[in-house]
Amino acid sequence: MFTILLPTDLSKNADHALRFALQLASHTTIRIVVFQVGEILIPTSTRHAIYTELYPQKIKEKTEELKAHVNKIIKGFDLPNIHLVYDWVDAFVFQDAVEDAVKKHKINLIVMGTLGASGIQRILMGSNTVNIIENSKIPVLAIPESAELNIVKSVSYASDLQAINDEIKVLVKFAHHFNWGIRMFHIHPNYPEWVDTAKDNLEIIMSNLKETYPDQIFSMDLVATKKENDVIGGIETYVERFKPEILVMFPTELTFLDKILRSSNTTEMAFHLKVPLLVIRVS
User: Of 153, 157, 215, 216, which is the most exposed, with the fewest CB atoms less than 10 Å away?
Assistant: First the structure.
């Protein structure tokens, strides 16, 4: 069964991400693991026999509190296709706990809420969601607080047209599972330009995709920018113009020097989210 990991800190934006995840089950059956990380504090002076009795009891209490919180959120939702699982974990490092949960529950997708950050706040605080996006091998769907709770009918895939076949192969699996159409878009001009954006060239790309995936709905848009390689500006223009339900990006690996000098386009978008962002890495 397709399984979603939904980490939560019981905040409003985490609750909103859970509601968004519930909407994904309108066309398919999914399993959602609601996951919380915390610390069990028991005095070190506690005798071992008492400690071994108290510890699992505390875990159970925390899990029941998590379940009670979620029950308030899902009240009123029709959930015939959703199987909810609760996992409360005593851990110190959030990212390590998430990685362990991904293996434990055989996760297909991580869904997280995000508030974003900017300026000095971004430098000092960062974001759990962005950290997971940067390091997770599992696709991550980041949900901003402003995201509307509608049934998703299509996703918008930002492509440099360089690795389109490998990326589409992965994205189509998600699209088939959730009954999504795929709206591709390309920002230009870029240097180096991997694919000629002349009409005939794009028609060949679209024709090949439709022949390879006859059951999948595709479309393609071009977004022109005033200056070369303004990917972020082009994506912001697309989001403003087309109002995508979910933005899809496939991050590329940066060299060590690149990471010092600049952030990836995907990380930049994660910090300035206006729409849900699905980040997928092609292994």
Answer: 215
pLDDT of residue 119: 44
Helix axes 164-178, 199-212, angle to 10 degrees: 50
Cα-based distances in Å from 179 to 27, 33, 128, 164, 182: 7, 22, 29, 20, 10
Chain centre to alpha carbon of residue 19: 14
Polymer length of the chain? 283
Answer whether 115's CB lies under 8 Å from 127's CB.
yes
What is the value of pTM for the model shown?
0.87
Please say if the pLDDT value at position 118 is more than 60: no
Does 170 have pLDDT greater than 90? yes
Q: How far is it, in rounded angstroms, from Cα 217 to Cα 220?
A: 11
Distances (CA, A) of 65 to 4, 18, 58, 112, 217: 20, 16, 11, 20, 43
The single residue listed with the structure tokens 């000629």 is 196
Give the separation between CA 256 and CA 274, rounded to whole angstroms: 29
- Cβ atoms of residues 158 and 235 within 8 Å: yes
Helix (H) or strand (E) holding 4: strand 2-7
Look-up of token digits 């008492």 = 50
Note the pLDDT of residue 262: 47
Q: What is the pLDDT of residue 201?
A: 82
Per-residue pLDDT for 121 more than 60? Answer: no
Tell me: the pLDDT tens digits for 52-111? 778 889 899 999 999 999 999 988 787 888 999 999 999 989 999 999 999 999 999 999
Phi-psi region of 278 (alpha: psi -120 to 50; beta: other; left: phi over 0): beta
Measuring CA to CA, which residue among 22, 29, 43 is closest to residue 1?
Answer: 29
Q: How far is CA 237 from CA 80, 181, 261, in A?
A: 38, 21, 25
